[in-house]
Amino acid sequence: MLAGLLAGCTTTVRGVATPASPTATSAAPTSAAGPSNSPAEQGAVLEAHRLASVTSLIPVTFPERTGSCPRASGPFVEAGELEDAYFDYGTADILDRHGFVAAWSECNRVTGAARATVSAIVELADEAAVEQAAEELAAANVANGFVRVPVPGFDSPAVAQDDQASQYVLAFVPVGPVLAICYHTSLRDQGIAEISRLMTDQVALLRSFRPTAPADRPQLPTDPQDLARLVLEPPGEPTPLTGPYDLEGALRLATDPVAERELLTAHNLSGYYLRQGRRDDVFATVRLWSFPNQAAAEAVHGGLVQLDETAGDRPFTSTTVPEAVCYAVRSGTSDVLRCRIQALEYLAAVSVNDPDRASATATMDQLLRDQLDLIDG
Asked: What is the mean predicted confidence (pLDDT) over 24-30?
């Protein structure tokens, strides 16, 4: 299990460039375009966004794990894509048989080391389905070389595998009608105790979560904060990242969730909406934060500028919106361009992930100008 994740842990490929920041370099799941084709598909995407708010922020539990993963964090609306990203050994078949609805994952690692952590929350048909799926997933991993292990403080199924230097642990934690799948790599003999810490933090978050009833999912609000009209549609097909988020969900898309929580809470974030488009392997993302007034937006912008200055990314200037704060962020073998602007009571950010730097620059300049015009009216 997780062979692709482990193989990629020493080389950053498609995925997030900064902690919990799929919008910066996203290799988001490719199916089910955002809130889109049918009420049922739209409902699954929006339910995944609700799961974001109760998925563990890994750097909160493990402050040393702020590096990017080679697979994307974010929403999943097909079990097969969750398996492709992280979990082998028949995971998709097991989850589908037990009524897979939607999932959200977070992934971070120790920068420069092959030690990654994944926290994935999967909504299934009901509590009985979650219990059965947990047992079947554990058994599937035992059949492929893992051994069952006890995790302090939990009766949930867990398995582990060791090599000479490392320990790989998987835990399957039923919490009502959702299943927390926690994967953790660590130094040998440390992984079981450490995954217990992650599971404790994760279960605490899930205690407050109530899944949306199946009949109600198609009616989940697509734009509860009335922000979509102010968010530019980027080129390409919309991905499942597209849609509204509450404060906690927005933090799962933040470059520094700990610092940004303080900023956004202090200045009363009132809304957040994201659109992401994909065309082949090119991603463009537009995000909008709204605040009660312009002073609050300016204060948050200033705080984010200070965070930018400590990140070590390379600044550049947009030719169309020179007042924007822009950086080139290295991801794999190419740069991801990201720019942020403040206007009225809003902050907007544009990210472009395109291996062709000239094309990325042209796309950024156009999107940034159009997004500012959209806010200004």
From this structure: 35
